[in-house]
Amino acid sequence: MTVAEEKQDFSKRLKDAMRKARLEAGPTRFAREFNLRHHGEPVTAQTTRKWLYGGALPTQDKVRTLAQWLEVSPQWLRYGEAERSHAAARQETAAYAVDSGWLAKKFDSLSEPHKKMVLEITRALLRLEGKQ
Questions:
Q1: 81: helix, strand or coil
Q2: CATH topology of domain 3-96
Q3: Which are the contacts of 65, defined by CB distance < 8 A and separation ≥ 6?
Q4: Helix, strand, or coil (residue 118)
Q5: pTM value?
């Protein structure tokens, strides 16, 4: 298999995983949503466009973030290996849970109105948890 074929196959699997996750996003929105979930260097819309249209392959750390987000196994997403059960994929990606330092950094990068929204949602969820 050529590198070009690998890129095209990855693109197909990525789009399939997005469809199954009911995520319809263009490259700009996809990049923004990805960067909210990724612990490393952010990606550009140009980069995600390349992933979506077979122009490039993401690095392994980015594949793990994509897999966790889209709830598929990293191996299947990158290489097309037989997908394991949903539970196995979740266990595998659980090691990459959000740490508080990363979350604080992402929160600080939000605009003030968005920070207020996050705080309101968090308070509402905490109130719901208290009622259960």
A1: coil
A2: 434 Repressor (Amino-terminal Domain) (1.10.260)
A3: 34, 37, 38, 39, 96
A4: helix
A5: 0.63
